[in-house]
Amino acid sequence: MRDEGIGGDAALPGMRGLLRSVRTPEFVGTVFHEVEARSALNRVPSTSPMPFGWTVNPYRGCSHACVYCLDGATPVTLADGSTRPIADLREGDEVLGTEPDGAGGRRYVRTPVLAHWSTRRRAHRLTLDDGVVLVTSDEHRFLTDEGWRHVTPGWCRSGRRPHLRPGTALQGPGRAAVASGGAASREGYREGYVCGLVRADAARSRVTAEPFPSDWVELEALARVHHLLAGLRTAATDRTGSGRGADSAGPTGRAELAAAGHTGAEPAGTDRVVAEHAGLARADAARAGAMGAGAGRSAVARSGLPQTGIAHAVAAPTGAAQGGSVTAAATAWPDHPTPGWSAGFLAGVLDACGEVGPRGVVLVPVGRDLARRTLDELRRNGFGVVAEPARTADAVRLCVRGGAAEHLRLIALADPAVGRVRDVSGAALSAPPCGAPRVVSVEALGVEQPMYDITTGTGDFLAAGVVSHNCFARNTHTYLDLDAGEDFDSQIVVKVNVARVLERELARRSWRREHVAMGTNTDPYQRAEGRYRLMPGVIGALGRSGTPFSILTKGTVLTRDLPDLTAAAGDVPVGVGVSIALVDRSLQSHLEPGTPSPAARLDMVRKITGAGLTCGVMVAPVLPLLTDSDEALDAVLGEVAAAGASGATVIALHLRPGTREWFLRWLAREYPALVPRYERLYRRGAYADPEYRKLLARRVAPLLSRHGLDRPFPTPRTTSGAVEAPRDPKEGQMSLI
Length: 737
Prior knowledge:
alpha+beta; 21 helices; five-stranded mixed beta sheet; 22% strand; 737 residues; 31 strands
């Protein structure tokens, strides 16, 4: 087969092991990126409900691949609220995504990066009114108040695509919630953090009669303050000279530390609501003595840190050999706090007494001075705060208003160390108090440049503070037999050495010959297999190693390898499954363009069973109100049974992000009366309403029994036989195309 080398411009920059990128006359418009894979076996997460633990994917991508890309410097919000340039993300990283909440809104969730790659695209500059400037491809999409919108106008398979316009409101927390990084290096941050953590914990310790650091202080905060105190002692030595301490601090420094240091002028302008709501009754002097003289010894036992660590800095007398008055200075109220000190102070208080509740982040400082100062610093940084009574005596709950948007802004500003107070998962997606960021302009830059994209478990992520669609085709286009993309080039990654690498991995002593599944992510018998012939080597390696395996496909290229499959079945259990969504050829041609017809797939089932192999059929997806009638289901199951299938599994349509928008537009054009009913059926997310799925299962059960298809799906897991395919529709719908 003749091919054309296309050089580096069409290749994917940064792709590991890339050998070359080629086009061929047989596949017009398709680019094959041939790579040397480092591994072939992919472990399925232990939390997955799938009845297998390993997969092999000779190809990455099918007939379409995403070009929704962003400039490499675009900050992506991680699951802990920090940010990282999209170019620096890696598979397995956790980022912040969103999912429907069932009430018409969306909520934040932690989601893994499933894939990461780079390509070259024509660049466009998107400017927002909050100052954000994004460099992106024209096909990229962002979530707006009216749904997903492309960056520029254009055409897709379903018609003219919706796009961003000046004034369009984007969803997300906005620019202020994007962490700039380096908070701890700001002037005064270290002193502010130590002051906030020590004072907040010491004040609470007086209530519980525990010394600092009390058992409330979490290890992340202990590690942070230990590191910062080392820096403070170094700075103090530089200022005072080696071996010279600030003797004037002497016992005052120790007493101040033991009582969390209520020194300095009381800040002005404090809202009276703190005292009114908290019922603060104790005097500072009465609170100061409750900690006792054993603070240092308890601190050492609590933290387990060396004598030069937190315990030493907090409990030891100030003097030359011990770093002088470093800690006394660090816990004192500054007359003129710098922005860095304010950020550090809020981080310390958050780490000591922060909480995350249904309404957002809450700080619960104990003591009048600490509560007033915390409130002042929050308001100094523009946060709206509501003060409420707390259960703990002498404490007040300072509730930060603005939901997750302000919670993320507080994380970006303060950079607390404790993961618990950085977690916004489950919170509602809402606009910042200043309003949603709006589009100012979209400009073509007239150049091509490297861009990056990711696939996440939710189908989206936060890019520069706004919700951005990821490339769903790299992952989720294989869950539906729909053309998941609207603006995709054909980009197929081919692991040309997959059989050789697999054979090496299967030969390891550690390999336990567990079941390997193929076709659950990308179809191993897509059209490209006719060119590259990777599967015979894969089948041979699995059979020779004694590893049971199964294949799920819609590609009739599989019949070429029936002799290899039959030979392997003599050594290990082999299961073969074929995906057949429907038998209505006119409807199938709309929904499955470019795929083998239902008749061709049924003929493949006959050939598989004729070769002596068991073959199950996955009837998926069933389209509610279109292909789910008893007559339609009976017809397809009758055809499947007549072809000799050993069993069948029926699964309702999934509408994952990206596919959902495409399908609903197709539905609106072809069957507009059904749109409201689909919106109700899928109001909770990607899966049909649970009641619908239960009803479908009840209706399908007697049909499966009538046609003799109610047997386990052929998915061998061990050499003892087959196991049943997933019964829950959430667990296993293959792609339609």
